[in-house]
Design brief:
Elements (H helix, E strand, L loop, with lengths): L15 H12 L11 E6 L5 H12 L3 E5 L1 H4 L7 H11 L2 E5 L3 H10 L4 E3 L7 H15 L6 E5 L4 H12 L3 E5 L8 H8 L8 E5 L2 H5 L4 E4 L11 H7 L7 H4 L7 E4 L21 H20 L1
Parallel strand pairs: 1-2, 1-3, 3-4, 5-6, 5-8, 6-7, 8-9
Length: 302
């Protein structure tokens, strides 16, 4: 792996499945303490439940000590230059885990740091979520290559990282979005060309029904992410017809599973009760943030 994990493509495609298998082993209790006597700094400019909890517990399971800083404590790039913070953190800890708005801040921090830096979410990518997603797919389907995933909704940071994770594993991702909210062309091309040995693909369509046809996994995310609250009413109109519900699931493969990275908004991107639907593996997916990230941290520190 690269020294840091800022984008999903920082991982070589050939490393995805071995890392997923290692996460399965760690989940079963097979792990040492690579962080024994070491500290991991969590610097979060955005609120979090799953990301903070999974990294905190994961660092402790690997023998380390998590140290948390909220947005008001550091003021990255405001109260103190990003590069200065990176240099200080590098002298007192062994890993920096950052949840922020701009991808450029992560790049600047990593360039000045002398320790691994992990993207715990930016507006551009959510690579740790995608890693947990392919772990979950592997658990329920027994494979990654050839799995067909339909993502219904905004071509956002979650979809962007998922594109690389699925295509890089030899799977096939179809994204269904309304006009103006599609996955960007750079990601469509980059993810499809990410792995040169497997035949993974990423495609964009308009129709949710077309996307889910024969899908093994149906995945969705919120219509308005953090920082997009002012667009909520406009987006709700644009995404009408893009709800995942039992009727849409019935158009997918006979054993299709439903995924959502949470938090969810029933009545919008999903119907009421969809998280408890027999096909839902959303809470298994949430738990797997812990195990996927533990495997990632272990790999970075090696």
């Amino acid at each position: 792996m690269n020294a840091s994990f800022l984008r999903f493509s920082d991982m070589d495609p050939g490393e995805i499945e071995p890392l997923v298998r290692r996460a399965v082993a760690i989940k079963s209790g097979d792990h040492g303490a690579p962080l024994a006597g070491k500290s991991a700094i969590l610097m979060f400019e955005k609120p979090s439940l799953r990301t903070k909890l999974s990294f905190w517990v994961g660092v402790e399971k690997l023998g380390g000590r998590p140290v948390y800083f909220g947005a008001e404590e550091v003021g990255l790039g405001k109260r103190e230059p990003v590069a200065d913070v990176a240099k200080v953190v590098s002298r007192m800890s062994q890993l920096a885990i950052i949840r922020t708005f701009g991808q450029d801040l992560l790049d600047e921090f990593s360039a000045a740091a002398s320790i691994p830096v992990v993207n715990a979410l930016s507006d551009f990518e959510h690579p740790c979520q995608a890693l947990a997603d392919v772990l979950t797919i592997f658990e329920v389907k027994g494979r990654l290559e050839g799995v067909r995933v339909a993502f219904i909704g905004d071509g956002n940071n979650v979809a962007r990282s998922l594109a690389y994770a699925v295509a890089g594993s030899g799977g096939h991702l179809t994204v269904a979005s309304p006009a103006g909210y599609e996955l960007d062309q750079e990601t469509l091309v980059g993810a499809s060309n990410y792995d040169t040995e497997l035949s993974g693909t990423v495609s964009q369509v308009r129709s949710p029904e077309e996307a889910v046809a024969n899908a093994d996994i149906v995945y969705t995310d919120v219509w308005a992410s953090m920082g997009q609250e002012s667009e909520a009413s406009v987006r709700e109109g644009a995404f009408a017809g893009y709800q995942v519900n039992p009727e849409l699931m019935s158009r997918a493969g006979s054993d299709a599973k439903f995924m959502h990275d949470l938090p969810a908004h029933p009545g919008q991107e999903i119907s009421e009760g969809m998280l408890e639907h027999p096909s839902s593996i959303a809470f298994q997916q949430a738990e797997n943030r812990l195990w996927a990230q533990a495997a990632l941290v272990e790999a970075l520190l090696k």
